[in-house]
Structure formats: C-alpha cells, structure tokens
Amino acid sequence: MRTPSFRVPRRPLLLAALCILAAANAVPASGRPQSASEGIFLVFPFENAGAPPRVDWIGEGLEELTIQRLSAAGQQVYSHAGRLNQMDVYGIPSSAKLSRATMLHIAEELDADYIVFGSFTSDGTSLTVNARLLRTSPVALLPAVTESGPLTSLMDLHMKVVWRLLGSINHGFPFSLNEFSRLQKPLAPAAFEQYIRGLLANEDEVRLRNLKEAARLEPDWPDPAFAIGQVYFQKNDCMQAIPWFSKVPKAHALSVEALFATGVCRLRLGQPDKAQQVFAGLREDLQQNLVSGADLPEILNNLGVAQARQEDFAPARTDIGRAGDIDPDEDDYPFNLGLFALQQKDLAAAETYFAEAARRQPDNPENRAFFIYALEKAGKKEELRAARDSAEEEFGEKGLPLLKIDAKHPDSLARYERIKPELETTSLRLELQGPPSQSMSAAAVTVPADGSVAHLRQGRQQLRAGRLDVAEREFQSALAIDPHNASAHRELGEIYRRRGKLDEAVKELQLSLAELDSAAARTTLARVYLDQKKPDLARVELQKAVKLAPNYAEAKELLSHLEKNKPTGGAS
Prior knowledge:
The chain is of the alpha/beta class. The chain has three domains: 4-189, ABC-type transport auxiliary lipoprotein component (Rossmann fold, 3-Layer(aba) Sandwich); 253-416, Tetratricopeptide repeat domain (Serine Threonine Protein Phosphatase 5, Tetratricopeptide repeat), CATH 1.25.40.10; 451-564, Tetratricopeptide repeat domain (Serine Threonine Protein Phosphatase 5, Tetratricopeptide repeat, Alpha Horseshoe), CATH 1.25.40. Helix content is 56%, strand content 6%. The chain is built from 25 helices and seven strands. The chain has helices at 20-25, 57-72, 80-89, 100-109, 154-169, 177-182, 189-200, 204-217, 222-234, 238-245, 255-268, 272-289, 297-309, 313-326, 332-343, 347-360, 365-378, 381-395, 451-464, 468-481, 486-499, 502-515, 519-531, 535-548, 553-564; strands spanning 40-43, 47-48, 76-77, 114-122, 126-136, 139-141, 145-150. Strands 1, 2, 3, 4, 5, 6 and 7 form a seven-stranded mixed beta sheet that branches. A hairpin with a 3-residue loop joins strand 4 and strand 5. The two termini are 43 Å apart.
C-alpha cells in the first residue's frame, strides 16, 4: 500500500476533486462547458484477485486512475488521502480488505453518494478488470463492469470501464466513448506506472527517482510535478519545491494544494509579501467558487502571519480571530494573536490570548510559558506565582521552554509564530457557483433525492463556516427525515458543546454512538465530560476511542494529557 509518509501525516489533504477552480475553468475538447455532477464518488483500491506480485501496483494504480478520470469528466471524487483519514478514525488499517458494509460506513461519514471498488487479474501478459458501483442512498449494488485485454492496454481498458460505470448510473449519459476519452489527458503507460510506483515507494530517493522519470516521460502532466514538490516540501527544501509546484496550472484539481504549499514556502523563506499575495488570492478564489463562501482557517492563519510580519496588525488580528472562531479547539490561532499583542505591547490582550491557547491545548508547554511571560511583563505577581506553581506541578520543575525574547527587538517573537503547513478540507464539499449549464445538464450523474443527505451536507458546510444557527437547523432537518442518522446526531453534539449546552451535547453524542461507534464521536463526548468536570467518564471514552482507532491523534493526545494529570491518591 502507499506509504502514509508521502502525504503530510498530521491531517488529510484536499479532496482530489477540490477542483473548485479546476471545474470552473476547465473546458473539454468538445468545446462545451464542463459541469460537475450532483454525486460524490469514493474510490477504493482494486483487489489483486490473481496477478503476479510485480503488478501489485495496478491495484492502487486503478484507484488513482479512476479518481483522475472521474474528476476530469466533471465528477466530484475523494482523494486517496481523504479516504485513508476516515479509515484511521475507525481504526481500519490501510491494507485491510473491506466488506461492503464497512465501505458504506466510510462513505456515509464522507457524504459520498457512490462507491467504486473492484478487482483485477493478470497472467503477466493479459489483464481483466472488474469494477462495481455501490450507491449509498438508497443502497443498491449496480451490475459489474468487466473489461479484458492485453496488459499493455491498461489505459484504454480502464477508460472504457469508467465510461461504462458512469453510463450505468445515467442511462442518458451523452458522451460516446470517443467523446469521453477526449475529456481525459492521454498518458503514456510507462509514465503512469512510474508515477504510481513513486507514490508507493517508502524512501525519498526511490520516490523522487520514479516521480522524476514520470515527469520526464510526461512533461505536461502536473501530477508527478506536484508529487515531487510535496516530497521536497516535507523535507523543508522550499527552493526545490516551489519550481515543481509552479508546474501545476490553476485549472488543475491539485492547484489549491500546490498554491497553499507555495505560500507556506514563501513564509519559510522570509518572503511575507509574496506569501500574502498567495494566500489572499487563494482565499478570494475559493470564496468566489464556493456557494457558502466558506473560509478555511489554515489560509486565514497564514495570511494573518504574512500580514503581521509586515506590521499590518489590524487585518492580521481580524483574519486569525476568524480562524479561531471557525476552529474553536485549535490553540495555534489564539497563540499567534498573543504574539501580535506582545509585539504591540498590549499585555492585557496577550495574557487573555495565551490563557485561551493554554485552555485549548493544556499539554503544550509553550502555551503556558508565554502565558507566564505575559503575566510577568504585566507585573501581576499573585497570578504569576499561581501560574508558575501550576505549571511546575503539571510539567515539572524545568518542563517549560526557555523563551528567547529580545525586548528591544519585538520581531524576535516572529520565530515563535505558528504557520499551518497543510490544509484540512475533508469536510469541504465541492460546490460550483450557479447551476450546471443547460447544454451539459444531461451529463451530470444524478443522485436519487434524499433530503437527509442534502441537509447533512449543507449543515456541515455551515458549521465549517462557523454559522452555528444555520448548521443546527440543517442537522435538525436531517434528523426529522432520518432520526437514526449518526452523523447528524454527532454534529449537533458538537454544536451544543461549542454553545455550552453540555447535557444536550451528551445526549446527541450518545445517540450517535448508539447508531454507529466512532473514535471521533467518543473524543467529542470526552471533551464534553471534561467541560462538565467528569474526567473519569472522559477517560473511559478516550480509552475506547484509542482502542477503536489507535492512530487517531486527537484521542491519543487528549488521553495522554488526562493520564499525566491523573491523581494518585483517589478518584479524580
């Protein structure tokens, strides 16, 4: 399986079909405007059902190729990384052989309308691909699509498979196979194989060698260039990363991710003016192409850092404050605001922001160190003594970092700024402004009407945008249609937690868990119990979450904090 280290490990990245910009700008070879579908696809690797090990790469190659071809045809489709992240939440190993029921659970949590899965067999010279479509609501398994041919015909054979899959959903699908093929970028089989082998490689040297060979064979194909840029980006070699990211055109599905990484590199290279230009442009483009106009907190944070480095503090505070409102559990945003307040010698504001950062992430000793620093500078002796005693009890006598701040040079604080290195957009749905063009409306893959799904999607978009009132109404509407919707109950629980309605939050989260167990719901429930001063109950939920999903970082971090602060002399 593809090594997780290829992608930024902390969080999932963009939907492969976060081609909000790509779909808006793309024009197919036929000259007609391309429209997105009403359905969202989730693709799983194809199982090796009888092929020699040397062609194992084909399983994930078929997954990647399916994602790319659906996206190029105007469909909405999740990336490999987005799928893996959801599997992590449920504690499912990336290499696990999944039942259809498990696939359905994952798809429901991601609001996917269609699941694509299948298998392949090969004797080393010939190839047979068997593909299936599973509709999620109402659940229906569509007839299998099978194509066979020489192994060297993989690209053409797969093209026919995807075309037939789309035709099986929409019998009025207007494209002939030739027309559908013209929507796709022709790829040399050797270049595609090198690309997949590069993604699967475990070592950077091998990965780069394969990816660069793919880029050499297909110099106008942006995907290998983006992947190479990602390797250098994760090695913090921005001078090498930026030229490769620049090869990704704005109309490509990966452009948002490439631009974001470029902006991060500009900050790392000490070029805040160029970084501001990147993040401001990215924010504007996303807002224009999203019906909800949702802001992404990572973009807002990095834009604010770029502005602050140019001493433009007012918009920096506004943008990062907005990021903190959207993501109320992330401590980086109030921490950065505290740094800006120190630079402006506003000690009262700095104290407030660092206290909030410490509340959001009590395990981070840097949050506490800066809170103590602000109290010391403000001359608050009693509060300072209490804060130091509390920090020593939790972190040890020398557990806090030594801050290196030059009072004569406020810009020395810039070294502590927290830049978000990646986007977290799994909850973001691809939304094109306006309805599909009339000439292409028949091309859209339609999804049977399901009000609960529509309300759930809209609610998540509104929650992502920080519009709690609207989001709550959408989730309530979803539950009115489907009272057993685990996702709607969990999202309502999160809204009630943010509003301090803790009893209501517990009720909704328990209803969610009664329908479907998940580490995410248990971790949110644990946070509610902590707010209710019930650490024992919180610990139980977190232990269950970690047992269910050992790689779920949020649950592990919170449980670790609880264990470190567990009293030794009695009940907590």
